[in-house]
């Protein structure tokens, strides 16, 4: 009899993928301005480190929140004992207001329909447990966040079938791609329970168009028992037009409240990890108008409740509407500026990006730098960028992109100087590439490639420490 | 039905256990919660295994250690690093602190390796996680009765694992016997059920007793022979307040031949430190593969980095921890003694116990019929007449009717007095009249209505007071 479970011994957690292996290399040789200026710069981490000062100054102005106090009195006992899976109501109220604010108050949310979870990692898994089971599948547009393979499939037994998107139309979701994915699922004998989209998209950095949203809503309307999950974790990072349109707005505009048939099948996932830059606090949520889903998900949230002290801290912070308004505006401004810096830096190297208006990263087109239009060539290029250029970026294949040559490059998790240095390194690399191909001098490249292959061999053995940064 | 296909089976079955009839007790409490001045006739909550005896110690520590918070001027310089920290390995100082605390709770007799410490969403999350690592759907784990009701949800709901009860009874103070283990195992085999392991809670909930070394050794021998896992939920480790002293499975492992890779510990700070709101669950496994896989799974329930940082500070204060453990023990012993002696004055015996936050009370002689119906009837009288929310043994899957778990550490001294007074009055009535006090009142309550729908329980902050425990959602109150 097998000692451990099937789940423990398979690799559906997806952590053997290159996406996570890049981490490892970074860890061995991390860049530090002073201590290790030649180290690898981390550009594979979709963290928002641009606005901590705003949070810190709020804390300085609100000393009561620290030290477990309210109005000068200790509330340790209250917080220490609070484990109600319905969550702190003041926190949920503050969350729904914050979410509404992000959507320009064009939609409102009911705190009773919100379920708090330990990060959106937990929210997404919990939704899968509620909506699907083994033998079922969810359709996801590619490219998508690598962590979905673990979050949606690993312990739930649910499958993911890709909706292939291409650069031909800027990776937008088309009806034919949807139909094709649906058909593929049928061929695999999988029952399609729904579609999951990330809006704004990771890794594309773009918001879904109204057209795409309507297409998705139409599609699930037309199929019985099909759900639509909209992971809106990056909703507060939209820094340019076109603005962000939540699926909830689309439903609001097209359907009446009484149209249970559709309201029961659309669910939103959110988190404070990206907008507020607080991934460590593990604050996620599911929002659904389906009472049964809310009831089931609430019970399931027992497996990953949000720490009461964290709920308390954030309820105080988010209740401060002056602060949240200011924060959202300033944060977006900084993101916009930073994105511009990356885009122009890449341009100087002759590298283009998908035009983006959101997120903490750009979807970078390096197809012209590939030796061939293959994923092997993409891997080769990626290894060179990690090892020679010393930048950890994420190859498109790890995001299940159907065309080789695309990379996700993050811009909000480092200082301006570091970003500038990264661009400098890239520029030299590209210059070197074009000069060496001019000279037809391949020897150096070949020997480098050989040692890289050995390196890959070593990497793929499993007795190294793998670190998962939970990031998107 | 429409919903059946719209949602998953898991979402629509009731393996979450919340439709159990014993949630009636919570309902009664919620409708009419005791308060010493505002509602002295209300229902006293004695079904909540919380440790409320030592908050003053922690509050004092907080006052003197403002750097432990990342929000204070003294601690805010760490805010961004901590807020950004989502590594599933957890903060090294936090793991070290937990390992150290676990060791101290075992009198320093064992040492724990911080590298083997995995985080999870409370012990609730930890128990589910270990099942996902060790068993496949339809596999089974053996569990001695009586056991914590929420095991049904934690171990089996989303995992698909089934529970096989190992029956224990009062003839030998509910000790786990080799015979009982063999019988449960044999029956499972006969029914073609694949047994993957045995899970025990030590100290026991609801018994309040610790397992003796001999029993622990026999369990290890049993799992070694059958080549199945042993999961030890030691969540009440530091609540052991008197002899015999608590013996952890880790100690036993030092003294005998065993397959380490089969042994795993579940822990939490919810009981020993009274911090269930902070959601600190720990899985400690001696199996490297489980550590590796479990660590990845912990992504689904990491401990808030704010909380990790706070606890790293608290738990590394050796003097404070030593003092805390000693005082906590003393206060628990005192409360336990006060309560049990109070019961003795009306000839109510509890199972002799040395740990936990509750007593296992023997009310068998008060049963009209020595059946589980009899137990339920008595239970409803206790809730509705005596106005105490206690937990009937049947909710713990106890094989004999008449036992009740009564919590004593989630209230102040005065409330304990009131509870004892009511019990004495009730028992007195029962004994003096020689027959049941006629329950005209409770008969009018439709006692056959068992379904409950807890659609929106709101946490009502106004109800909170230092005296009355907080209202909780039904399932988390099932602890």
TrEMBL record, chain A:
GO molecular function: 1-aminocyclopropane-1-carboxylate synthase activity; pyridoxal phosphate binding; transaminase activity
Cofactor: pyridoxal 5'-phosphate
InterPro entries: Aminotransferase_I/II_large, Ethylene_sulfur-biosynth, NHTrfase_class1_PyrdxlP-BS, PyrdxlP-dep_Trfase, PyrdxlP-dep_Trfase_major, PyrdxlP-dep_Trfase_small
Catalytic activity: S-adenosyl-L-methionine = 1-aminocyclopropane-1-carboxylate + S-methyl-5'-thioadenosine + H(+)
Pathway in which this enzyme or protein is active: Alkene biosynthesis; ethylene biosynthesis via S-adenosyl-L-methionine; ethylene from S-adenosyl-L-methionine: step 1/2
The EC number(s) this enzyme carries: 4.4.1.14
Domain Aminotransferase class I/classII large: 41-426
Keywords: Ethylene biosynthesis, Fruit ripening, Lyase, Pyridoxal phosphate, S-adenosyl-L-methionine
GO BP of this protein: ethylene biosynthetic process; fruit ripening
Enzyme class of the recorded protein, top EC level: lyase
Similarity comment: Belongs to the class-I pyridoxal-phosphate-dependent aminotransferase family.
Quaternary state and interactors: Homodimer.
Listed name of the protein: 1-aminocyclopropane-1-carboxylate synthase
Organism: Arachis hypogaea (Peanut)
UniProtKB/TrEMBL annotation, chain B:
Organism: Arachis hypogaea (Peanut)
Family: Belongs to the class-I pyridoxal-phosphate-dependent aminotransferase family.
Catalyzed reactions per annotation: S-adenosyl-L-methionine = 1-aminocyclopropane-1-carboxylate + S-methyl-5'-thioadenosine + H(+)
Keyword Iron-sulfur applies: no
Protein name according to UniProt: 1-aminocyclopropane-1-carboxylate synthase
A UniProt-annotated Pfam family: Aminotran_1_2
Enzyme class: lyase
CDD domains (alphabetical): AAT_like
Alphabetically ordered keywords of this record: Coiled coil, Ethylene biosynthesis, Fruit ripening, Pyridoxal phosphate, S-adenosyl-L-methionine
Subunit structure, interactors included: Homodimer.
SUPFAM superfamilies on file: PLP-dependent transferases
């Amino acid at each position: 009899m097998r000692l451990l479970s099937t789940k423990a011994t398979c690799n559906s957690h997806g952590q053997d993928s290159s996406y996570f292996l890049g981490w490892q290399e970074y860890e061995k040789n991390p860049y530090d301005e002073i201590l290790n200026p030649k180290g690898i710069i981390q550009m594979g981490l979709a963290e928002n480190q641009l606005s901590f000062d705003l949070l810190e100054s709020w804390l300085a102005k609100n000393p009561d929140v620290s030290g477990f106090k309210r109005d000068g009195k200790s509330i340790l006992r209250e917080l220490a004992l609070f484990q109600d899976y319905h969550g702190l109501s003041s926190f949920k109220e503050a969350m729904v207001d914050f979410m509404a604010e992000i959507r320009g108050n064009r939609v409102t949310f009911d705190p009773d329909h919100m379920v708090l979870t330990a990060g959106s990692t937990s929210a997404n898994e919990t939704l899968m447990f509620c909506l699907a089971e083994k033998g079922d599948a969810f359709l996801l547009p590619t490219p998508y966040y690598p962590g979905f393979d673990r979050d949606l499939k690993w312990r739930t037994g649910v499958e993911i079938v890709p909706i292939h998107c291409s650069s031909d139309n800027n990776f937008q979701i088309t009806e034919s791609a949807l139909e094709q994915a649906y058909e593929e699922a049928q061929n695999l004998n999988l029952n399609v329970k729904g579609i999951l989209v990330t809006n704004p998209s990771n890794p594309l950095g773009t918001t879904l168009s109204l057209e795409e949203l309507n297409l998705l809503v139409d599609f699930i309307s037309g199929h019985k028992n099909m759900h639509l999950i909209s992971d809106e974790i990056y909703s507060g990072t939209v820094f340019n037009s076109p603005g962000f349109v939540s699926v909830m707005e689309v439903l609001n505009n097209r359907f009446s409240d009484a149209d249970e048939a559709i309201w029961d099948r659309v669910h939103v996932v959110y988190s404070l990890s990206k907008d507020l830059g607080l991934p460590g606090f593990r604050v996620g949520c599911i929002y659904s108008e389906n009472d049964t889903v809310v009831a089931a998900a609430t019970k399931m949230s027992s497996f990953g409740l949000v720490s009461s002290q964290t709920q308390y801290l954030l309820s105080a912070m988010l209740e401060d509407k002056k602060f949240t308004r200011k924060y959202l505006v300033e944060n977006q401004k900084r993101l916009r500026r930073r994105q511009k810096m990356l885009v122009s830096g890449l341009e100087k190297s002759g590298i283009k990006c998908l035009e983006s208006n959101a997120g903490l990263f750009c979807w970078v087109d390096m197809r012209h730098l590939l030796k061939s239009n293959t994923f092997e060539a993409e891997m080769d290029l990626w290894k060179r960028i990690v090892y020679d250029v010393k930048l950890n970026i994420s190859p498109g294949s790890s995001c299940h992109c159907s065309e080789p040559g695309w990379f996700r490059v993050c811009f909000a998790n480092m200082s301006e100087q570091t970003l500038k240095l990264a661009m400098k390194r890239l520029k030299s690399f590209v210059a070197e590439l074009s000069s060496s191909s001019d000279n037809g001098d391949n020897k150096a490249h070949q020997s480098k490639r050989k040692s890289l292959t050995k390196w890959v061999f070593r990497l793929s053995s499993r007795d190294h420490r793998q670190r998962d940064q939970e990031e998107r | 039905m429409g919903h059946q296909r719209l949602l998953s089976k898991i979402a629509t079955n009731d393996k979450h256990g919340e439709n159990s009839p014993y949630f009636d007790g919570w309902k009664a409490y919620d409708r009419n919660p005791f308060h010493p001045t505002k509602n002295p006739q209300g229902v006293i909550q004695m079904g909540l295994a919380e440790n409320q005896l030592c908050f003053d110690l922690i509050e004092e520590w907080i006052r003197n250690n403002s750097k432990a918070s990342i929000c204070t001027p003294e601690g805010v310089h760490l805010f961004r690093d901590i807020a950004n920290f989502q590594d599933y390995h957890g903060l090294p100082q936090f793991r070290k602190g937990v390992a150290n605390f676990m060791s101290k709770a075992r009198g320093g007799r064992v040492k724990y390796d911080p590298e083997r410490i995995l985080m999870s969403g409370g012990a609730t999350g930890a128990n589910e996680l270990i099942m996902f690592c060790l068993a496949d759907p339809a596999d089974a784990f053996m569990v001695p009765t009586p056991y914590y009701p929420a095991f049904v949800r934690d171990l089996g709901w989303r995992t698909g694992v089934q529970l096989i009860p190992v029956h224990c009874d009062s003839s030998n103070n509910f000790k786990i016997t080799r015979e009982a283990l063999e019988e449960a195992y044999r029956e499972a085999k006969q029914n073609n059920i694949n047994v993957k392991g045995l899970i025990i809670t030590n100290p026991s909930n609801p018994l309040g007793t610790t397992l003796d070394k001999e029993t622990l050794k026999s369990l290890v021998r049993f799992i070694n022979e059958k080549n199945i896992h042993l999961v030890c939920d030691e969540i009440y480790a530091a609540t052991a307040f008197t002899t015999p002293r608590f013996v952890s499975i880790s100690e036993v492992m030092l003294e005998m031949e065993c397959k380490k890779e089969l042994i795993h510990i579940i822990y939490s700070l919810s009981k020993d430190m009274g911090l269930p709101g902070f959601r600190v669950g720990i899985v400690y496994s001696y199996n490297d593969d489980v550590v590796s896989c479990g660590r990845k799974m912990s992504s689904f329930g990491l401990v808030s980095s704010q909380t990790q940082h706070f606890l790293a500070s608290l738990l590394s204060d050796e003097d404070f921890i030593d003092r805390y453990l000693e005082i906590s023990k003393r206060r628990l012993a005192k409360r336990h003694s006060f309560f049990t002696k109070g019961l003795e004055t009306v000839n109510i015996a509890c199972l002799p116990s040395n740990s936990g936050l509750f007593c296992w009370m023997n009310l068998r002689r008060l049963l009209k019929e020595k059946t589980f119906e009899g137990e339920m009837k008595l239970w409803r009288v206790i809730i509705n007449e005596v106005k105490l929310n206690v937990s009937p043994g049947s909710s713990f899957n106890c094989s004999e009717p008449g036992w009740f778990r009564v919590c004593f550490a989630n209230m102040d001294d005065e409330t304990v007095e009131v509870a004892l007074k009511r019990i004495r009055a009730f028992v007195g009535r029962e004994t003096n009249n020689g027959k049941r006090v006629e329950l005209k009142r409770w008969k009018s309550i439709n006692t056959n209505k068992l379904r409950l729908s807890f659609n929106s329980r709101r946490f009502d902050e106004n109800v909170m007071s230092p005296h009355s425990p907080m209202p909780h959602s039904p399932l988390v109150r099932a602890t």
